[in-house]
Structures are given as structure tokens and as C-alpha cells.
Write a structure and sequence with these properties.
By secondary structure, the chain is mainly α. The protein contains 9 helices and no strands. It has 2 domains: 74 residues, no CATH class; 113 residues, no CATH class.
Length: 192
């Protein structure tokens, strides 16, 4: 499967899952709404292939259950979702030395790790440490390695914590420097 195929699959599954999670909590489990009303709402929220899958079903109480079963068979494959997160994490672009790309990387890593935990995957594996480290620029990795020390082994928690601390420190320093520069400009402009 190519990266573009992985991306399209990820998009399809994640769109469906986001819709499904909201739908289950707000609509599907609501006993005061009839099945035909649930089906009408579901159809209005689906996009792409998920929408096409149920397009031929007329609005009825019975067809609501048929639609839910069809969508579950197509998209509720837990292994496919796990694979999707692995592929996205592995294909994540390496961050640059810019704070914004480091923050983006951290946010995406955190999101995938949370999803793995929800899917009951063990995130305390060395493979995750290796993947995350491979996505850091060399100079950032060197600084983190110095902070960690030569005797300490990385864990997912210790690595993501250090990255988070590093990114927050850089964000603060950038804000402080920007604020200082703005103050200096105001002082200089007031003198002239």
C-alpha cells in the first residue's frame, strides 16, 4: 500500500470514526429518538464512501439497523485502525529545528499514542521510542540525549516528557524574545 493509499484510507476511516463516536454518544444510544430519525441524522453526517454505502437504503426504522451493520462491517476493523496509526506515525515527516514543527510533531505523536492506548496497544515498546527519535532533528536529539544522560534508557513517557519540556521552553523563550524586541522598538520609536 502506497503512502497516498494510506493517507486516503486514514482519511476515510478517521472521518467515519469521528462521526461514529459523536453519533453513538448523542444519537444512537438516545432512546427518545426513533430509528428512522437516527438514520436520517446519520445519513446527513456521512461523507464519501461511507455515505455511498448507505445511499441506496430508504429511510425506515428497519434500514437504520441495516445501515449501522453495513458501516460497522466496513469501518470497525480494529486491526486496520491500529495499522493506520502505525503507518501515520512512521510516515510522519521529520520535524525541523523550528519550534512550530516540533510542537506539531509532539501533538501528532501524543494523538497517536492516545489512540493506541484506547485500542489497548502497549505503547511502552522500544519501537515507539525509535520511531519518535527518528522524527527529531539531530541537534534537538543531541540536546535531549545530553539531558537524559548516558546511563538512562529512554521510555516513551520520558522521551515525550523531555520533548514537551523542550518545546515549551522554546515557546516561552520565543515569546519572551518577541516581547523584549517589541518593547525595545517602542522605546526606540518614543525617543525619536
Amino acid at each position: 500500500m502506497s503512502n497516498s493509499d494510506n493517507y486516503l484510507l486514514a482519511l476515510k476511516v478517521s472521518r467515519y470514526l469521528k462521526t461514529l463516536d459523536y453519533f453513538k454518544s448523542a444519537i444512537h444510544n438516545n432512546k427518545t429518538i426513533s430509528d428512522v430519525e437516527k438514520f436520517n441524522y446519520l445519513k446527513s453526517k456521512l461523507v464519501g464512501e461511507a455515505r455511498s454505502a448507505v445511499a441506496g437504503l430508504s429511510l425506515s426504522n428497519d434500514n437504520y439497523q441495516v445501515a449501522v451493520k453495513m458501516l460497522s462491517k466496513r469501518y470497525d476493523n480494529e486491526q486496520e485502525i491500529v495499522d493506520l496509526h502505525y503507518n501515520q506515525l512512521i510516515s510522519q515527516q521529520t520535524a525541523t529545528n523550528k519550534t512550530s514543527t516540533l510542537r506539531l510533531l509532539l501533538d501528532k505523536v501524543d494523538r497517536h499514542l492516545r489512540c493506541f492506548e484506547v485500542l489497548k496497544q502497549n505503547v511502552n515498546q522500544g519501537v515507539f521510542v525509535s520511531i519518535i527519535r527518528s522524527k527529531l532533528p539531530e541537534d534537538v536529539l543531541i540536546q535531549l540525549e545530553i539531558q537524559n544522560g548516558t546511563e538512562n534508557k529512554w521510555t516513551v513517557v520520558s522521551l515525550t516528557t523531555r520533548i514537551r519540556e523542550y518545546v515549551v521552553a522554546r515557546e516561552r523563550a520565543t515569546k519572551d524574545q518577541k516581547g523584549l524586541n517589541d518593547k525595545l522598538l517602542v522605546r526606540i520609536s518614543n525617543k525619536f
